[in-house]
Amino acid sequence: MTFDDDMDLIHGSGNVFRDLGLPNPEVEQLKAILAAKIIGVLDDQKLTVRRAHELTGFAAADFSRVRQAKLSRFTVDRLMTMLDRLDQDVEVTVSVQPRFPATRAAPHVV
Q1: Nearest-CA neighbor of 71 among 26, 108, 109, 34?
Q2: What residue ranges in 62-110 does DSSP mark as E strands?
Q3: Which runs of consecutive H residues, i.e. helices, occur in the chain?
Q4: For the CA atoms of 89, 81, 66, 50, what is the dihedral angle to 10 degrees?
Q5: pTM for the whole thing?
């Protein structure tokens, strides 16, 4: 590739799962964020998946799946509970806004 190549610059939505057209992109992004936090705690505390199992009661295989980003078996609630059992406080902030500018006119009331 050279600098002479014509390329289009496309700005992402801020959610790679939405940009890829995957179902439930907001849930998938939240699960990925929570998994990253779990991995961070394991790394910071130098915990093996077996030690994490001993501390939390969650299967070592669950922590292995989180490390491998295999999150399809996990709910947001389960990931939050894993963080809780790793002695982490989880604070959630929710922002709701239209995804795209409204294109429909308000209904006509007679």
Answers
A1: 34
A2: none
A3: 16-19, 25-44, 49-56, 60-67, 76-85
A4: 100
A5: 0.79
Phi and psi based region of residue 14 (left: phi greater than 0; alpha: psi -120 to 50; beta: remaining): left
Q: What's the token pair of residue 99?
A: 């995804």
Q: 42-78: string of b/e by CB count within 10 Å (b at 16+)?
A: beeeebebeebbeebebeeebbebbeeeebeebeeee
Could you report the average pLDDT of every consecutive run of 10 residues in the chain (110 residues)?
72 88 93 98 98 98 98 97 97 85 55
Residue 69: which region, alpha, beta or left (left: phi > 0; alpha: psi -120 to 50)? left
